[in-house]
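Following up on my earlier thread - several people asked me to post the actual chain instead of describing it. Fair enough. Here it is, all 474 residues.
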Amino acid sequence: MKFIVIGAGLTGFQLTKRLIDDKNDVVLIDSDAESVRQASSRLDCMVIQAKGNDLDVLEKVGIEEADAMIAVTDSDEVNMITCSLVDSVYPSVLKVARVRNEEYYLDKEKTETWKGSRPIYGIDYMVHPDSEVASVICNAVFHGAVNEVLQFEDSSFVLVSLSVGGRSVLDGARMKEIRGSAKTDFIVCYVENETSAYIPSGETVLHEGDRIGILTKKDGLPDFFRMAGVESVPIHKVAVVGAGRIGTQIAERLFENSRRNGLKKFFLPFLNVEDASSVSIIDKNAELAQAAAERFPGAHVFNADITDEAFIAEEDLASYDLVISATRNHELNMVTSSYFKALGVQKTISLVGSSTMASIARSIGSDVAVPIKETVVDCILGHLRGGAVKAVHTFAEGDLEIVEAEIPPTASVCGKLLKDIASPGSFLILLVKKKSGYEIPVGDTLMEEGDKVIFIVHEEDSGEILQMFDGSKV
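Reply from S.P.:
Thanks for posting it. Predicted structure:
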């Protein structure tokens, strides 16, 4: 397939790399000479210096033949105008734009009434990076502030990443021997250590320090925390460092969930935020702090520097159960999480730039490190992987992908048993959603038209495996 990416920043570069790795024809365009120079030296694709919103330029690189155009420059307006321009001449080209400003997002009820007409602004999919990141962080909070947490729509299952503790029953255990130790069904989806990340087999032996991805039902999480030697800490008091767009969205979601009926029953023992007064918001920018105070009148909002030891002591921030560092300064977020962990805070979360930085953040004290670049790229890829694919999530610094797909009638797997399509070590089907709901499949599970399947696959094998499920390759 052919893709044109506008913007060679961190997100554009990573997205282009992922598309190239999947054997696609990609053109990368940016107006900045230095960005183009760096991308040209590191990417095996056409990289040109030009304005992405110039239709003549787009036509010269083959926009009429492209399957999709993705605009991820630093300017919302440029991204939107570029999509609108292309839509007016080449409406069949799929258009994706990164748009940060919430004011450009229309009410869902309005957009529903316009179904069947041309897409709003000429954009098929608008990706809101702040919203995507806030969702990932809050999912982690709601499930005990362990590493990555992945929820599946309308499912009671959840995938969490845990580190095997030195005194846990998992240290030194063989995979096939631990299946009877849990009280609920589960799958160990992947194992990651200092040298590799892989899909395990029954003979795989776990060791202290291994990070494992466990798929199980939400009510089974405390059991697995105990098995892995992870301390489950009820979260009553939360500090959100950063009152920018991401920080305020995190706070909003915390308050929204605290108001829902049955929250305590659903999330205990992980989250028990009684009301807004249980949440503190901290930012050294006076305007942002004032805006947060007006938006969240019941919360404790401080215009202060999180690195000020006197302020930390005066407000007794070390007594908090969870500190979320979500400022625009990713290095500060890492240091803040590490510092509060050293002070005795039970759980810390930090927003970082990339999966590489996330690994470093976890090594110095962050219980959860959310990479904004990979989060946004995953969201975009979910829109580009073909009609069958509904979402893509990466783990282990991009080495592994979890794909959500719906089986069309033309798929080669349609009508086959799981045991007949299985490829141990290459991919693993985690869940199948049939009319009765989600289930962990067995060898005799039949793959049928309309089934939603969730599987994990090595990144280098994803194109081939995707062909099995929808007949296309991206």
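The first strand starts at residue 2 and ends at 6. That should answer part of your original question.
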